[in-house]
Specification:
This protein is mainly α. Helix content is about 80%, strand content about 0%. The protein contains 22 helices and no strands.
C-alpha cells in the first residue's frame, strides 16, 4: 500500500511539474512533505541517510560553485568571453551554437557537467543578449552536450561516480570504454542540432556588426580580482580531478573553494549570496526526498528486479534492458538517485555473469543508459535543473516541455547508438 501511495504522490507531482500548472518548488516541497508525514520515508532518512533522502554532496557542490561563479561574475570575464565567442563565430548562430556545445562537451568530462554548465551558461546568456537572439536554444543545446560529454569519464557525470565506486571501475576504465561512443554521439548531435534547432538560427547583421566592433579586453573590470579568481578556480578544478586520489568529495572541494574565493576577493558576502540559485537548490532537495520515497517503499527496486528477472540468463538482453530501461527511468526519476538505487540490483546480475567481460558490459550498458537518459526531461539530471534555474533568473525561462521535446529526441538517438556500440563491442 505504501508503494502505491509513494508512486501516486510522485506521479501527481510530476504532472504538475511537467504541465507547469504550479510552481515546481512548491510542488516538490508539498510532495516531499507528504511522503515524510505519511511515513513513506523515515524522518531521519530525509536528512541523514546515505542512500535515501537529500543528497548533500550534490547540494553543497552546487552551492559552492554558485558562490564561485557569483564572485567571478564581478570581474567582467563573462562579458569578455561572450564578445570573444561572438567574434570567433562571426555572429553566425549555428557556428556559435557548435562552438558553445564543443566547449561544454570538452570541459564536462573533467569538470563534471554541472560545474561546466554553471560556468558556460552565464557566458551564453551574455552573448545571446549582445546579439539579441533567444538564449533558450543555446542553453538547451549546451545542457544536452554536457550530459553527453560528461558520460566519458568517471567524474564527468554524478551517476558515473556511483557506478565506478560500486563496480570498482577507474577513471581510465571509463575513458577507454565510454569515451569512444561519446565522441561518436556528440558528433552526430552536432550534425543533428542544425535540424533540431533550425528555427532558432536568426542572424541580425546590424547587431553582429556592433558586437564585432567591441573590444573584449575592455569588458574586464577588475584584472587583479580575475587573476586571483582563476587561481582559485584552477585549484578547485584540480581538486575535482584528484577526487579519486585524495578521497575528498567534490562538494567539499567546492565549498572550500567558495570560502577561499570570498576571502581573496573581499566581495560583499550578501551580494554574492544573492546570486545563488536558491529555488534550484530547494527544488533539488524536494526532488531527492520524492525519489527517496519511491526507493524506500521499493518501487524502483521492484521495477528493476522485475525487468531483469524476466530476462533470465540472456545477458545481451539484460544489457539491452539496462540501457534502454535506464534511459527511460533515469529520465523521469532523476538519474542520480535512480543509479544509487539500481546499482545493487545490477551488481547482483553482474555477479552471476559467466565471465568478467560480460559483467563489465552490463555496467557499461547501465552507465550509458543512465547518463544519456539524463537528457530525457528537464528534471532528469542536475545539469538540466541548474541550467533552467539560471535561465529563469536571467529572463530566459525554459519550460519543462520546451526542454523535453529536444531532450527526448537526443536521448532516443543516443541510446540507440549506445546500444549498437554495446552490441558490437561486447557481444559480437
Amino acid at each position: 500500500m505504501s508503494a502505491f501511495a509513494a508512486l501516486a504522490i510522485f506521479l501527481v507531482a510530476f504532472f504538475f511539474i511537467a504541465t507547469e500548472k504550479a510552481d515546481k518548488v512548491k510542488v516538490v516541497l508539498i510532495a516531499a512533505g507528504l511522503m515524510a508525514v505519511l511515513g513513506l520515508i523515515p524522518g531521519a532518512g530525509v536528512f541523514f541517510s546515505e542512500h535515501e533522502g537529500i543528497d548533500w554532496n550534490v547540494i553543497f557542490l552546487l552551492l559552492g560553485m554558485m558562490i564561485i561563479v557569483g564572485v567571478i561574475k564581478q570581474t567582467g570575464v563573462f562579458d569578455y568571453l561572450a564578445i570573444w565567442a561572438a567574434k570567433k563565430s562571426r555572429g553566425r548562430p549555428y557556428r556559435l551554437m557548435v562552438m558553445l556545445m564543443a566547449i561544454t562537451a570538452i570541459a564536462s568530462p573533467f569538470l563534471d557537467n554541472v560545474t561546466t554548465i554553471m560556468l558556460v551558461a552565464p557566458v551564453t546568456i551574455v552573448v545571446c543578449n549582445r546579439l539579441r537572439i533567444a538564449a533558450q536554444p543555446y542553453l538547451i543545446a549546451e545542457v544536452l552536450a554536457s550530459n553527453i560529454g560528461g558520460a566519458a569519464t568517471l567524474i564527468g557525470d554524478p551517476p558515473n561516480i556511483i557506478i565506478g565506486s560500486r563496480a570498482g571501475l577507474t577513471f581510465n576504465d571509463f575513458l577507454m570504454h565510454m569515451a569512444p561512443i561519446v565522441v561518436v554521439i556528440f558528433a552526430v548531435f552536432v550534425l543533428a542540432s542544425r535540424w533540431l534547432f533550425a528555427g532558432s538560427f536568426q542572424y541580425n547583421a546590424e547587431r553582429v556588426a556592433e558586437v564585432m566592433a567591441l573590444q573584449e579586453r575592455r569588458a574586464i573590470t577588475d584584472p587583479r580580482l580575475l587573476a586571483r579568481c582563476l587561481v582559485v578556480l584552477a585549484a578547485v578544478v584540480a581538486g575535482f580531478g584528484l577526487h579519486a586520489v585524495v578521497h575528498v568529495e567534490p562538494s567539499i572541494v567546492a565549498l572550500v573553494g567558495a570560502g577561499v574565493m570570498l576571502l581573496v576577493s573581499r566581495a560583499n558576502v550578501s551580494e554574492v549570496l544573492s546570486e545563488v540559485e536558491w529555488p534550484t537548490l530547494v527544488f533539488f532537495m524536494g526532488l531527492f526526498v520524492m525519489v527517496a520515497g519511491l526507493v524506500h517503499t521499493g518501487v524502483i527496486a521492484a521495477i528493476g528486479t522485475w525487468a531483469l528477472d524476466t530476462l533470465g540468463n540472456d545477458y545481451f538482453m539484460a544489457a539491452t534492458a539496462l540501457l534502454f530501461g535506464s534511459g527511460v527511468l533515469g529520465a523521469f526519476f532523476d538519474n542520480i538517485p535512480y543509479v544509487a538505487t539500481t546499482a545493487p540490483i545490477v551488481e547482483g546480475v553482474v555477479a552471476a555473469a559467466p565471465d568478467p567481460q560480460t559483467g563489465q558490459a552490463l555496467w557499461w550498458a547501465f552507465a550509458l543508459g543512465a547518463d544519456f537518459g539524463g537528457n530525457g526531461t528537464a528534471v532528469a539530471a542536475s545539469a538540466n535543473v541548474v541550467a533552467l534555474g539560471i535561465a529563469a533568473r536571467n529572463g530566459h525561462k525554459i519550460s519543462f516541455w520546451q526542454f523535453t521535446r529536444y531532450g527526448i529526441v537526443v536521448t532516443a538517438l543516443s541510446t540507440v547508438l549506445a546500444w549498437l556500440y554495446v552490441w558490437m563491442r561486447y557481444f559480437t
